[in-house]
Amino acid sequence: MHPGSLVAAVARALHPVLPAAAGLTEDEVAASLTAPPDPTLGDFAFPCFKLAKALRKGPPQIAAEIAASLGEPSGLFARAVATGPYVNLTLDLGRAAALVLPRLARGEPVRRPATGVRVMIEFSQPNTHKAFHVGHMRNLCLGDSLVRLLRVAGDDVVAANYLGDVGAHIAKCLWWFLDRLHDRTPPADRRGEWLGELYAAASNQLDAWEDQAQAGDVEAASALQQAKARTSEILHRLEAREPEIMAVWQETRAWSLEEFAEIYDWCDVGFDRVFFESEVDEPGLKLVAEFLERGVFVVSNGAVGVVNDEVKHMPFFMLRKQDGTSLYSTKDLALARLKFEEYRIDRSIYVVDVRQSDHFRHVFLTLKKMGFPQAERCQHVPYEMVELPDGPMAGRKGNVVLFRSLRQQMTAHLRKTWFQQFEGQWPAEEIDAAERMVALGAIKYGMLNRDVNQKIVFDLAAWLTLDGNTGPYLQYTGARAGSILRECGEVGKSLDPAILAGEADLQAITAALKEPQERELLLALDRLPQVLHAAAEQLRPSVVCTYAFELCRTFNRFYNADNCRVKPSEGEQLQARLLLVHAFVHALRETLVVLGIAVPRRM
Question: Which EC class heads this enzyme's classification (predicted)?
Answer without folding.
Answer: ligase
